[in-house]
Design goal:
Chain A: This is RNA polymerase sigma factor SigW. The complex is a heterodimer of chains A (187) and B (83). With 187 residues, chain A is mainly α. Chain A is built from nine helices and no strands. The chains are: A mainly alpha (187), B mainly alpha (83).
C-alpha cells in the first residue's frame, strides 16, 4: 500500500488531482473513524475528515516521503479534532452525557420503521455504553485509546502521530484503560 | 486490593502492552494466582479492551471522496501556500 501511496503523492505533486482522489479513497474510512470516535457527531466528523484531506492536499509538499504517510495524515486528523473539542466545548467531557444523548447515536441511523430483534437492541445498547465511556474520557486519553484500540496502531506510531514521547503515550493508555474499566466493568 | 503494591497494576498494563519482561511476568502471574482482587482487576481490564475493540467499525459517508475533491482548489492552481 505504501508504494502505491508514494506514487500517487508524486503524481499529486506534479499537479494530478485525480491521484489525490485515490489517496482519499484509501484512507477515508480510517480518517472518518478517528474523527467520529473523537467528536461523536456524524456531521462534525464528516466536516473534520473532509478538512483533514483538504489540509493534507494543501500541505502535501511538506510531507516527508521517507516517513509513513498514514502517520502524517492521522496527525492532521487528530490535531484537527483536538482543536475542535477545545474550541467548541472547553469542558466537553464533563457534559458528554448530555452531548451524547442529544447528538446522533446508534439508533438514529436506523430508519424509523425498522423493528429490531431483541439481541440487536441489546448489542446497540452495549455499543452505546462503550461509546459513552470513550466520550467521557478527557481528550488526551481519548486520542490514544482511539488510535490504539479502534485504529489498532502500535504505541510508537501513536507517539509519532501525536508527537509525544513514547513514555507519555504509555501512561495515557494506562490511565485511559483504567478510566474505561470503571465505566465498563459492570457490562 | 489496597494492600497490594501499586506496582502490580502497573505490571498488568505493561503486560497488556506486550512490554513486560519475563521475570516480572512471572511475578505478575504468581500474584494473580494468589490475589482474587487483582485477578478481578485484570479480568476487568481485559474485558474493557474487548468491549472497546468491539465498537463497530464505521465507514465514511457515501459520496465522501467526491465532496473532498470538490473542496480542492481547481487544477492548474499551485499547490501549497508558501510556494
Amino acid at each position: 500500500m505504501d508504494l502505491i501511496v508514494q506514487r500517487r503523492i508524486r503524481q499529486v505533486l506534479k499537479g494530478d488531482q485525480n491521484a489525490f482522489g485515490e489517496i482519499v479513497e484509501l484512507y477515508k474510512d480510517k480518517v472518518y473513524q478517528i474523527c467520529f470516535r473523537m467528536l461523536w457527531d456524524r456531521h462534525e466528523a464528516e466536516d473534520a475528515a473532509q478538512e483533514t484531506f483538504l489540509k493534507a492536499f494543501l500541505n502535501i509538499h511538506t510531507y516527508n516521503v521517507d516517513k509513513k504517510f498514514s502517520t502524517w495524515l492521522y496527525r492532521i486528523a487528530t490535531n484537527l479534532c483536538i482543536d475542535k473539542i477545545r474550541k467548541k466545548k472547553p469542558d466537553y467531557h464533563l457534559d458528554a452525557e448530555i452531548a451524547g444523548t442529544d447528538g446522533l447515536n446508534m439508533y438514529s441511523h436506523l430508519s424509523s420503521g425498522d423493528q429490531l430483534p431483541e439481541e440487536e437492541v441489546e448489542s446497540l445498547e452495549v455499543q452505546e455504553t462503550i461509546h459513552q465511556a470513550i466520550l467521557l474520557l478527557p481528550e488526551k486519553y481519548r486520542s490514544v485509546i482511539v488510535l490504539k484500540y479502534i485504529e489498532e496502531l502500535p504505541l510508537q506510531e501513536i507517539a509519532n502521530i501525536l508527537d509525544l514521547p513514547l513514555g507519555t503515550v504509555k501512561t495515557r493508555v494506562h490511565r485511559g484503560r483504567e478510566a474505561l474499566r470503571k465505566h465498563l466493568r459492570h457490562l | 486490593m489496597t494492600s497490594c503494591p501499586k506496582q502490580i497494576v502497573h505490571l498488568m498494563h505493561e503486560y497488556l502492552d506486550g512490554e513486560i519482561e519475563e521475570a516480572t511476568k512471572k511475578e505478575l502471574k504468581l500474584h494473580l494466582d494468589t490475589c482474587a482482587d487483582c485477578k478481578k482487576h485484570y479480568a476487568e481490564l481485559k474485558k474493557t479492551i474487548a468491549l472497546v475493540q468491539s465498537a463497530s467499525h464505521i465507514e465514511a459517508p457515501a459520496g465522501f471522496t467526491a465532496k473532498v475533491m470538490a473542496l480542492l482548489p481547481r487544477e492548474g492552481k499551485k499547490i501549497g501556500i508558501e510556494r
